[in-house]
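Table S2 (text version). Query chain:
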Amino acid sequence: MSQRLRIAAETFLRMRFEMSREMTESIVTVIAPMKRESSSPDQTFGTDGIAPMNRPSAVTRFFMGIVAWVERLNFRYAKLGNPPVYDNATFPWAAEIEKEWPVIRAELDHILLRQSELPTFQDISTDVKTISTDSRWKTFFLLGFGIKSEQNIHACPQTWRALQGIPGLKTAMFSIFEPGKHLPAHRGPYNGVLRLHLGLIVPEPADQLAIRVNDQICHWKEGKVLIFDDAYEHEAWNHTDKTRVVLFVDFVKPLKFPANFINWLLMNLAVFTPFIREGLDNHKEWEKRFYAEAEALRNRPGKAG
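Corresponding C-alpha cell output:
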C-alpha cells in the first residue's frame, strides 16, 4: 500500500469510527445496563490470548484498538447469549445446510483432485503463521471478508447456492486438515461473527480428531453442522492418517442495537485494512496461477476436446 493511500485510509477510518463511537456511547448511556448471562464464560478481547500480528501500520494499530472496544459491546448486546458452542436448533437454517451436504461433498471431491495445488491458510493470510507454519492446513475460498472468489464459485455452484441460506454470510471455504495437523490453542481476531463447520470428510477413528472450544471437546460428523464462537480459545487436531475436510463459514453474530450497527460498520471498513487487503491480493495471485494451469492442461496438444 502506498504512503499516500495508507494515510488516506487511516484518516478515513479515524473519522468514521470516531463518529460511530461518539454516537454509540451516547446511545448506551440512555439504555438500561444489561447483565451478562451467568452461564457465559468470559471472553478475552482485542488481541489478548493470541500472538500479536507483525503489522507496524498505524491503520492496523488504530483498527485493532477499535476492535477491542467493539468486542465488549458485542458481548454485552448479544441476542442469543455468548455460549462457546451453540445448539444448532438456535439457527433454523442450519438444518437446511445439512440437507445440502451430498452436493457440497461432490463438488469438494472434484476440487480435491488438485489438493496438492491448494494454498495453505498462511499462504493467503500471512498472520496465520502465528499458529500454523506447515503445509497441512489447506484452503479453498469461495468468499473472504465478504469478497467473492468468482472462479472458485464457478467451480462450486451448488455449494455457493446452499450458502445463500446463511444470514450474514461473511467467509466461506473448504478447510482441509491433512493427516497429523494440530492447530494450537488460539482465539479468533473478532467476536462479531460466529463460525460454522459442516463435516464433509471425517475419517475414523473419531476420537483421533476433534476441536476444543473453551472447555468443550466437539467431534465433527459428516453431514452435520457445528456452530461455535471462535472468539473463545480453541484448538483443533487430526491425528488420523487421512484428510479431514469441513465447510468453514463465518456469519454475522446476531446482536441488538447499537452493537449490530457498529458491527456492520466495522466489518465493512475492515476490508480497507492492510492485513485483509494483503490476504485478498494473495488469493488473487494464487487464483491466477491455479486456473492458468487448468487452462493449460485443457489446451494441451493431443488432449481430447
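Notes on Table S2: Confidence is low (pLDDT under 50) at residues 26-38, 47-56. The chain has two domains: 3-32+48-82+258-262, 88-254+271-294.
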